[in-house]
Amino acid sequence: RLRLSRKVCRRTRLKQSRRSLKKSAPRPRSS
Q: How many CA atoms are closer than 13 Å to the CA of 27, on its beta-carbon side?
């Protein structure tokens, strides 16, 4: 559960971060 959670969290976080960033403020990935 921990391993899967970590993997899913990482993937979901990356996807959500990218989508959120693009939707929130479509600016060049400087951060």
A: 4
CA–CA–CA angle 4, 11, 17 (5° rounding): 140
pLDDT in tens, 1-31: 566 667 766 777 767 666 666 666 566 665 5
Q: What DSSP assignment string belongs to 11-27?
A: HHHHHHHHHHHHHH---
**Predicted structure pTM score:** 0.29
Question: Six-digit token pair at 10?
Answer: 């990482």
What are the boundaries of each domain within the chain? 1-26
